[in-house]
Amino acid sequence: xxxxxxxxxxxxxxxxxxxxxxxxxxxxxxxxxxxxxxxxxxxxxxxxxxxxxxxxxxxxxxxxxxxxxxxxxxxxxxxxxxxxxxxxxxxxxxxxxxxxxxxxxxxxxxxxxxxxxxxxxxxxxxxxxxxxxxxxxxxxxxxxxxxxxxxxxxxxxxxxxxxxxxxxxxxxxxxxxxxxxxxxxxxxxxxxxxxxxxxxxxxxxxxxxxxxxxxxxxxxxxxxxxxxxxxxxxxxxxxxxxxxxxxxxxxxxxxxxxxxxxxxxxxxxxxxxxxxxxxxxxxxxxxxxxxxxxxxxxxxxxxxxxxxxxxxxxxxxxxxxxxxxxxxxxxxxxxxxxxxxxxxxxxx
Length: 348
Hints:
The chain has four helices and 25 strands. The protein is mainly beta. It is globular and about 70 Å long.
C-alpha cells in the first residue's frame, strides 16, 4: 500500500511513536510527512508524550561561551565530546548578538537572553526546529542575575522566573503572555540558573537553598546538609535519582568535593553523602558541575580554556572521566536540553 493511501490518523499514530532523530530524516520522504512533523502542534504534543513514556527523548547539553560559541553535545553518545556528537548552533537573529545567555530549558523549549550593545531581549527557542519568538521585556532594572524555567502541567503553562540585584523578582506566564511581580519577603538573591524539581526552582543562597514554587508563586528556603559541615563551600544544586543534590568543595590540603543527596524532599534529616572525590592536583579540580538524572558534567580549566568533562562513579570515592570536550571560551553557560518538536503558536 502506498504511503498516500494510508489514512491520516494511521500515519500520525505510527509517526508519533518514532524518536525525533528518525522523524527529522522522514521529513524528506514526502510533503505530507513534512507537514505532519513540522506543522502539526497536536502531533508534536502526542509525539513528546509518547517519547516521555518510552524514555526515548534525545538528551543534549546546550552551552554558550564568551568565545562566542553556541553548541550542543549528545549526552547519550557512546563517546562524550566526539566530533559526531557535537552540533554547532546559531541563534536566528539578523543583528549580531554580543552575548547569548541560556536561562533554562523545558520540554525542548529554551529561554534565552540576547545582549546587543547596552540592551537585552528575551526569546523562546527550539534549536531543533529553528522556531524562535521574542518575549515581552520584564520590568527589572538590570539583566536577570538569577533565573529559571518551569512547566505547570495542570495549566499547560510555561513559566519564566527572573530576579535582579536587590529584591526585584518577576515571573512570566507564556499562556497569559504577561509578567507578574513576585513579592520577596526579604530573602537574599540566588545565583544564576535555578534547578527545576517538583515544579520549583532551586538556587544556592549563602548557607541555604532558595526555592521558588511555580504553582504557589512563593519563595521559601531549604537547609543545606548538617550544621557540622564546617569548611565546605557548596557550589551547585542538581537532581540525582529524582532527588535534590548539592556539591560541596572542602578546602583541605588535599582538596575534595562531596556530593550530598536529599533523599526525602524538604526533610533536612534525609541529607545523605553520596560520594566524595579527592583531587591529586589543582589541574584536576572541577570548578563547577551540572548534575542531571544519571549524568554529571563538570567544568575544569585547561590551557586557558574551559573543558567540559562527563564523569562517572566507580566507587564511593573514585570517579572516572568518561568523555571530554574542549570549548573555545573561558566562561561557559550550560543547561540540560531534551530534543522535541514542540513550538508555540503566535496566538499563545
